[in-house]
Amino acid sequence: MNFETVLFYLFAAVTVFAALRVITARNPLHAVLFLVLAFVSSAGIWMLLEAEFLAIALVLVYVGAVMVLFLFVVMMLDINIEQLRKGFWQWLPLGGLLAALIGVQMVWVLGADEISAGTTAVKHAADYSNTKELGRLIYTDYVYPFEIAAVLLLVAMVAAIALTLRKRRDTKRQDVNKQVKVRREDRVRIVSVPSARQVESVQEAAASNHGHTAD
């Protein structure tokens, strides 16, 4: 057993442990942190497979951006843990059955002749660049699926922006033109407010006048 094999089993064990803790941790904040650990260990496995671009993308995109967003959302929301865990044991047998079914499918797919024949990692030369090879395949053999995926993502972004910016009756909006054309006379009104002494003198005069009237 060489050093790379030891590293693989180490990263695999950490990934499985972190994945189990994601679904078993009582605190949602701890679950998010364990998910970060699972992503980092998965990136280590990809580095062993010489897929450095995918490893770096996983760390930068998911750990550095998506999981930070999840972490802020979990910290800002007032999550009722007891309400979320209600019915856990009721649905546990169904969840276990689905997990076993997914495991059987993964073993079946990985055990196929087309896949099992290429399980041995190919060793490349020192000047081999996984990023360069991935870019060559994307822009040559898979250029049409890549462009279709890009168009779909663009349409999804435009649709999300259009749904967000649509006019609603209960939505308050700012009119920049009106804000720029605003005048001081329309927004500011100068009012003469009497001082405390003036108010006291007026009250004393009113009280004295009331006393004279009573006499």
Explain how this protein is built.
The structure is a single chain. Helix content is 73%, strand content 0%. The chain has 215 residues and is an all-alpha fold. Helix 1 (3-24) packs antiparallel against helix 2 and helix 2 (28-48) runs antiparallel to helix 3. The model has no long low-confidence stretch (mean pLDDT 80).
Structural class: mainly alpha
Largest sheet: none
Distance between the termini: 114 Å
Give the percentage of residues in beta strands.
under 5%
Helix content, binned percent: over 70%
**Radius of gyration in whole Å, from Cα?**
33 Å
Low-confidence residue ranges: none
In total, the number of strands is 0
Count of alpha/pi helices: 11
Give average pLDDT, whole number. 80
| Shape call | elongated
H/E element string? HHHHHHHHHHH
Task: Based on the model shown, name its key terms.
215 residues, mainly alpha, 11 helices
Secondary-structure map with pairings?
Blueprint (H helix, E strand, L loop, with lengths): L2 H22 L3 H21 L3 H25 L4 H4 L3 H23 L2 H4 L13 H9 L4 H22 L11 H5 L3 H4 L8 H19 L1
In a few lines, what is going on in this structure?
The protein is mostly helical and 215 residues long.
